[in-house]
Amino acid sequence: MKPLLTDYTLAELEDLFGQLGEPAFRARQVYGFLQKGLDFEGMANIGKALREKLEANAAAQGASICKTLVSPLDGTEKYLFALRDGNIVEGVFMRYHYGNTLCISTQVGCRMGCAFCASTLEGCVRDLSPGEMLSEVLTVDALHRQGDKRGVTNVVLMGSGEPLDNYANVLKFLRLLSAPEGICISLRNVSLSTCGLVDGIDRLAEENLGLTLSISLHAPTNEQRSALMPVNRRWPLEQLLPACKRYEQRTGRRIVFEYALIEGKNTDLRDAERLAALVRGLRCHVNLIPVNLVKERGLHPPKQAGIEAFEQRLKELHVSVTRRREMGDDIGGACGQLRRSHLEQSAKNGSPTP
Ligand code: SAH
């Protein structure tokens, strides 16, 4: 496959242009256009001959929006991104008072096997490259930009895939995303969510990037967590929590714990008490999420009263906790659900599935 230009830093692009016999200022121009989410045909100022030469040797963007769903309730937008090889990943755009957050995917599918997650049902197809992740951001930013006002201000790595299972590419993506000469999104405005790969958490702590680390915790005991998340057998709680502590101490950033409430699995008030005991002494915040129904798995969220009681118990035990605002529920739910329904549809229509 042709090289993807959004995979390159500006310096690397200048080198590449040098190899193609083009001056560095051309590389800077093209880099500027790429950062605006443009493909070769949108690159005004670049002569036709050079555009054709580039097109013959490289691809500009690594992801393009092939379907958009807009929530009539809260304006949340969900996208299906087509990658160059025909694979599909998804993203979600949410408007908050502090800015616009884009949730991006880091892999096609996922190999982690969490019981409640639609992304993992068919395993991991492949990793996304740094430029593919960047193109998710650049195309959506271009869609929502108003003059100088950026369309995407915050990025969360919470779409399909396990970011720490695609470590090197995710790290380069974060460098591209925050490059001063690029779209320049501060890593303070970025959250990376992991199911708990302890070796990756320790590596990330050493990079000290200033981003927020979210841990998908979802259960307060090994027995419950291993039943929901196979990764817990490899990295059980007695290894995960110390890694969180190390991360917090190394970076000075508090950890965010994601806790999806699943009726009958982790919603007892004793679970709230165990959770409070587990995170005691750690600077952290707990996000409660009523689980999004994944019909293949038969898992349900608790009733409203159950959610409130769980939250209340955590508050009584002095845990910093909020319930995550559920956005875009009406347009195809969480993590992998949109891509999945697209794949099911393609299968029904007999068209080749990516
Ligand atoms: N692999 C990473 C990031 C992707 S998942 C991780 O595990 O954190 C992003 C978040 O959505 C995770 O917290 C994940 O556990 C959660 N999630 C997945 N399926 C869900 C569902 N059906 N309901 C609620 N949250 C879900």
Shape: globular
C-alpha end-to-end distance:
17 Å
By DSSP, the count of extended strands is 12
Q: What's the CATH class label of the largest domain?
A: Alpha Beta
Average of per-residue pLDDT values = 92
* Biggest sheet statistics: 10 strands, mixed
Radius of gyration: 21 Å
Strand content: 15-25%
Give the low-pLDDT segments. Answer: none
CATH superfamily of the largest domain: Aldolase class I
CATH fold-level label of the largest domain: TIM Barrel
Count of spatially separate domains: 2
Helix content: 25-40%
Structural class: alpha/beta
Ligands in the model, by name, code or SMILES, are:
S-adenosyl-L-homocysteine
Number of helices: 12
What is the H/E order? HHHEEEEEEHEHEHEHHHEHEHEH
Can you list the strand order of the major beta sheet?
1-2-3-4-7-8-9-10-11-12
CATH architecture of the largest domain: Alpha-Beta Barrel
Describe it.
It is a single chain. With 354 residues, the protein is of the alpha/beta class. The chain folds into two domains: 5-57, DNA polymerase, domain 1 (Orthogonal Bundle); 63-349, TIM Barrel (Alpha-Beta Barrel), CATH 3.20.20.70. It has helices at residues 10-19, 24-35, 48-57, 130-144, 167-178, 198-207, 222-228, 231-234, 237-251, 269-279, 304-316, 337-349; strands at 63-70, 77-83, 88-96, 99-103, 107-109, 124-127, 154-157, 190-194, 212-216, 255-261, 284-290, 321-323. A ten-stranded mixed sheet has the order 1-2-3-4-7-8-9-10-11-12. Strands 5-6 form a two-stranded antiparallel sheet. Strand 1 (63-70) and strand 2 form a beta hairpin. The radius of gyration is 21 Å and the shape is globular. S-adenosyl-L-homocysteine binds at residues 112, 114, 116-117, 158, 162, 193-195, 216, 258, 260, 289, 291-292, 294, 334-335.
